[in-house]
Batch of 3 targets.
Target 1
Amino acid sequence: MTTSTSQLTTLFIVVALVCAFVPAFSVEEGEAKTLWDTCLLKITPKCALDIIGVVFGNGTITDACCHDLVEEGKVCHDTLIKYISDRPHLVANETQYLKKRDDLWTHCVSVTKTA
């Protein structure tokens, strides 16, 4: 159990670092700043990690984080997850990650409609 927890923690740290640096290297500087200003600042760091955990692992997400995700918007969610999944060490499973991204979005929209 400790090994699994340690691996999951390491995965979150790596993906969080990728999130921090990918926009700066994948898109033009002005576009990266726009993404940062309009997307990443709309959700809490914990919710961002939960979202990453759901898409790139076997994490779970709270209803509150779903509300934050929907508030962030589909374009932001899709774009940021796509940037992460395009990394060389993740691209082999990109189709799976994009499906999980879309499934998460559908789930969160349904959660916000029932609240």
Target 2
Amino acid sequence: MDPSKTASTEEPQLRHVEKDVLIPKIMREKAKERCAQHVDAFNLCCKDAGFFMVFKCQEQNAALKECLTQHYKDPAFFEECKQEYLQEKREYEQTGIPAKNRKQKLPTSM
């Protein structure tokens, strides 16, 4: 091991499940937030079209797919989500509390 590198500066080795499942999950959630106007337009179209949404909402679906795909293929976006995942992982290792439980509001005393 190179003594000039410390544990905090070394890039951690990601497991298959982290790289191919957990980080892409964060990417999907963030991409949906960033493409919110396309998501809303598609949802509205689907509600209005009902059973015929497959035919009537092709334009909105294509725009949504384009927006999401643009984010999924962006290496900088992957790196951003990877860093967010690694930060959550470090916090879990330090506290033992999963991120979803840490983000809940704590009850106030009476």
Target 3
Amino acid sequence: METTVQSLRADSIILLRQHLEKGNQPEKCDPLAYWEMSTDEPFKKISKKFLCIPASSCESERLFSKAGQMISDRRTRLSPSVVDKLLFLNKNKNINKIKI
């Protein structure tokens, strides 16, 4: 009996490599139809979570508010790229805790 060691990282790399090796869909392909018929369960879950359009503007308002907090009178010398990076890090600080 052969035993295999399972690693979340290795499994993720294999799934990603398999997905990237698939051919591209036609340009006129409906993304919703593609993900409904897809057999890639992990990618289906990820696409539902991250590729959907938000139903409200709350998230963008939160981000704008956070940017206003970061750029204050004391921090006026921050360059736009630094502010973008700070906002990105702040928004994604809990990404490893998201349940898919």
